Amino acid sequence: MKDCLIHAKTFARIAPRLKGLEDKLNIIVMDDNGVFSKASNGEVVTEPKPEIAFGNADAFFGPHVRTFILAVAGGGRLDWFQSAAAGIENPGLVMIGKAANRYTTNHKQSEAMGEWALWQALDYFKLGAAHRAQQDARTWKRLDMREIRGSKWLIIGFGSIGASTGRRVMALGGEVTGIRRTQGLAEGADRIVPTEALMAELPKADVVLLCAPHTPETEGMANADFFAAMRPDALFMNLGRGALVDEKALLAALDKGRPGHAALDVTCVEPLPADDPLWSHPRITITPHDSSETEGTVAGADDTFLDNLARYLGGQPLRHLVDKAEFD
Prior knowledge:
Elements: E1 2-7, H1 8-14, E2 25-30, E3 36-38, E4 52-55, H2 57-60, H3 65-74, E5 80-83, H4 91-99, E6 102-104, H5 110-125, H6 128-137, E7 152-156, H7 160-171, E8 175-179, E9 191-193, H8 198-201, E10 207-210, H9 224-228, E11 235-238, H10 247-255, E12 261-264, E13 284-286, H11 295-313
Parallel strand pairs: 1-2, 1-4, 4-5, 5-6, 7-8, 7-10, 8-9, 10-11, 11-12, 12-13
Antiparallel strand pairs: 2-3
Helix pairs in contact: 3-4, 5-7
């Protein structure tokens, strides 16, 4: 029998789907008070040493995230950890990744993030800010707008988020170019080009979406030269990591009129300080790193865990397995 650690809220949601596994799993839950107990009888567990653990928003956005991480990474028996996130750069996740024999990620949140990108693009193309200002002023004036149809999208770091966004854009008649190291056909893209083509592709794009991971190579990649290559009516969006963008260069570029607007779900410092100039710039839309915060994302992460749990217990290969060397 395997000791499996999950948050109490998660267990309450998925308990009916765990029926029949009582002889294979000893479920240990952590509640919002940081107390661990056996799900079967409520007995308190003072030193949990899980072999399996599922880390999701219930645990990582709760009041005892540190308690959860230390229990997962410090138990000394962790064979498999399922993350609800796609990225692995967070220091807590790195700690867990080094402790786990196997570490798997989740990409179901990309659907909500693809909708976020489409929302921002539609608001920009349809002059949402101008229409809202006219409504406030009770001004009846027709405005010339743009369409997704025929627009050219450049998606940098074309993975699950890029594919989810690209499918939506293509369904509305847009053209999608993805940039990634691995070449070949990809769902959600009309074509894939190598990273070396970035500067040549930027001037062609109506929309530039950044969703690359944060690495030494990608840090600050959206710099002054990057923005200078964009069209003055283009939209820049970041769904990757804040560190990918030189924010001072972005502010300066927007002041010069190139690109036309920026939509950011991530920033270099989070939460964004109240006095940061990004908040008040008229050509910037800020959301608080919540593009994936939907019921569908929560349910999708649960589905990923349960699918991989069945695979784990059945001795089958796990989906979205991360090479352990990635945590070095």
